[in-house]
Amino acid sequence: MTKGKHHKSLDTTTFLRIRKWYLWALAAIALTIIIAQVLIQLHLNSQLNDSRVINVAGRQRAYSQKLVKAVLLLTRTTDKTQEHTVIKEIQKTLEVWKTSHLALQLGADSLNIPMEDDPAILSLFQKLQPHHSAMVMSGEHILKTGKAGKNGSKTAMDADVSILLENERPFLELMDTIVNEYDKRSKAQLQNLKQKEYWLLAFSLLLLLLEMLFIFRPLSIQIRNTISDLVRSRSNSDAHAREVQELFSEKEKSLQELQELNFVIDNAALFASARKDGSIVFMSKKFLKLLGAEKEQLNTPLSELLTSDEGQQQYLKEVLKSNRKNNIRNEEIQITTGEGIRIWLDISIVPMHQASKQQSILILCSDISERKRNALKVEQLTREHFEERMLQKKMQASQIVEGQEEERKRIAKDIHDGIGQMLTALRFNIESIDIENTAKTAEKIAYLKSLTADLIKGVRTATFNLTPPELTDHGIFPALHKMSTELSKLTGKNILYENKAEAQVRLSSLAETNIYRVTQEAVNNAIKYSQANYILISINFKDDMLSIVVDDDGKGFDPNLLDTVPKNNSEGGMGLFFMKERISYINGRLFINSRPGKGTRVTINYKTNNQEEVYGT
Description:
Elements: H1 2-6, H2 10-76, H3 80-106, H4 119-145, H5 155-267, E1 270-275, E2 280-283, H6 285-291, H7 302-306, H8 310-322, E3 329-336, E4 342-353, E5 359-367, H9 369-431, H10 438-466, H11 469-473, H12 476-491, E6 494-499, E7 503-506, H13 509-528, E8 534-542, E9 545-552, H14 574-585, E10 589-594, E11 600-607, E12 613-616
Parallel strand pairs: 6-8
Antiparallel strand pairs: 1-2, 1-5, 3-4, 4-5, 7-12, 8-9, 9-11, 10-11
């Protein structure tokens, strides 16, 4: 026990030493902090009292002046209402003045003023008392007698005013002296507190210096020595660890190899090994479970365990026997388990050599039945999708043919109803001309001129709708410009053309024709169905991208209707379908944005290729 007491541990010795001195230092610092706080709080309370006293004392001077001014105002006023107000003010001032005068000497809890115990200040109050009493008596006398006095004369009033005026100056001078005394006393208390604070600060700094010399410095030396011991101990332990590592390295290597082999055996999904003759050496539990076999069946050949079908067994025997070289063979075979379930396996046959130089094989398998089933489903879906696409193409082709027939009917109807009727009318009018009737002949000739102009206009319109010459000769830019101008004249609509491109491009004949027809269809839809007044065709070419935008201010439509099945051309609705088909045919893109009552925007984008010609505007 004696030896244990004299040889304590390092942490115990350090803790006991630090605790003793550190507690003393903390106690001393805490004591100085408590003393400083007590002094500060006492001084703050004293300062609050002194400030309150000085405030009340200063206010006494103001109230004395306020009393004199109110009395003088009372002697001069003639208004009864104002006189009544001044009397109330004098009464209130006297009450506060008398209360504050007594509180400054005797103290008052309501005003937070302590009782005065300074003999110098009390002596000044004794000198002040006669003047204060005389002024109070005069004020109270004025309140009792009123402005005119009891006998209706101002003699008593004037006497009271004279007393107030005579005592006001001495009162103010003595109150100034009292306030100065309060101020001197407050400054002296503050100076005393400063000295005490300096002493406490010096004592605290001395304590910190002593802590640094007798606690922190020895402690740092001891910690440094301790760290040195720990470093030496760590070096020794590292050396021992290296020796241990060298001793157990071979053992760990062997253990790691065994763990890796065990991991392969335990976690391989489907795993088996066999000899040259096909007998099984080992088979994983998952493989046995997949085949529906038991461990007792491992004595049977591998080919017979894998499948119950004789043809498949013969094929597996040939596969296993043919793998004589040191190469890996992969096979996808379908087998039939003992439970009659047909599954697909992806088999990898890996040749292995043991220490006895006898060849054996390692078989790694994966169950690919699900993949095969999915492949069959994909093939079936692809075939169904192809048939559906072919059916859709047939329907589209029939719709296109129907649309062409409807277009031919429309052209024939326009020629028959328009140009044909005008030609018939022209013939009848020519035959009905009577040369002898000059007046009617002139009238018919004028009508024939108008009819001929309408006929020419109709022929131009039909020709323009069929194939504009500008498209073939000059390209899409002039053709769209010409179309906007002609349609504006023919329909009376405000159809504008805006070319934003810095350079023009000549596309292939197929691309230009389809783009022109789609733009023409968009403008015709805006004229016929949107009831638009303004139509703007904007064309731009930038970064090998041709963009055409058709905007109108018509009534618009619900964009969800675009996904509905189109009707035949006689009922309308095929226009949007043919627009999409034409743009899709040239690998372009079509965007249609519309809202009911907000107009419609049709955007056509076409990516040009290197074979198409670009030239400046």
